[in-house]
Structure formats: C-alpha cells, structure tokens
Amino acid sequence: MSIETxxxxxxxxxxxxxAGIEGETMVLAGGLFAHEGLLSLxxxxxxxxxxxxxxxxxxxxxxxRFRDHRWVQRAxxxxxxxxxxxxxxxxxxxxxxxxxFLYGLRTVSPIAIGTTHVPTRTFLWINAIAAAVxxxxxxxxxxxxxxxxxxxxxxxxPHGRQWLWVALAAVVLGTLFAAFRWWxxxxxx
Length: 189
Hints:
Elements: H1 3-10, H2 12-21, H3 24-35, H4 41-65, H5 70-76, H6 79-90, H7 92-98, H8 108-114, H9 120-144, H10 146-155, H11 162-188
Helix pairs in contact: 1-2, 1-3, 2-3, 2-4, 3-4, 3-9, 3-10, 4-8, 4-9, 6-7, 6-8, 7-9
C-alpha cells in the first residue's frame, strides 16, 4: 500500500502512526493532503507531533526497562548507538531536542537515551517540545510546497518502458548510496 493510499483511507490515524514508525515522508504527505483540503492542517500537525512523541517515549521506555536485554545489547553494538551516546554525553539537552532531525539516529537515539541516567521527566518535556516543533515543521513543509509537489507528480506520469528506466535509476541510486555509506563506515573505523 502506498503512503497516499494509507492517508486517503485512514486519514490522521495514518499520519499519527507514520510519524512514529516511518517519519518525515508520511508527515510531509500529511501536509500535502492538508494542502489539497483532504485533511485539516492543524489536525495533521497534531497527529504528526503526537505520533512522534508517543513512539519516542515508547523507545525511551524500552531502553530504560530492557537495558540488559539481548535486543538492547544488540542495538548497543551498532555504531549509531555509540555515536548517539557520545553526542548525548557532550550535549544532553541539545541532543534530546535534535535527534529526530538527524538521519540515521532517529530510532536508536531514544533507546540509547533510555539506557543512560537521563531522568524520565527531563526526556519527557524535551521530547514533547521537540516533537511539536518537528511535527509542525514537516507538516508545514508538505503544506507549503504542496502545489509544487502536486504539479511535479501531475506532470510526470511515466508510460510504458519509462517505468523500467525510473526503477533502474532508483536501484542505481540506492546502490550508490549504500556503497557510499559502507565506504564511509569503513573509513571511520
């Protein structure tokens, strides 16, 4: 099922769940749907912010509750987890506020923070403010650039073999991106 289909069928519930699970793409799409008049803009913003907030609180609680569980231990062995903890130690409040804006650290960060001695109340308040800012920002981006996105999608409708070229380009770009990330990780070690 596509993002558009999910939002069209489930509305704000899809934005809420998508914000917590998938992230920016679903929230941007929620803003686009608000631009098209299919969703309420304030509703999409609230759904995005609360979905992100609830998911991050759940990940934080999982990190706090299951610190010694093999699932969390496995997550701790990943480089992103170590990077999250290192940054958290240097800039605790800033990191808690900004982790959702950092690609590759969004899901692992609240788990990592949960394994530390950061008080639950501190994480809760900073997380609430950050989720509100994030939800409003990305929903607004989808809303403001909705006309451009809709025009772009409306103008470009691949026919016949063009789909093959689009798919091939996506595979090539994905492979190049994965190779670059692999090379960068090896270089950092």
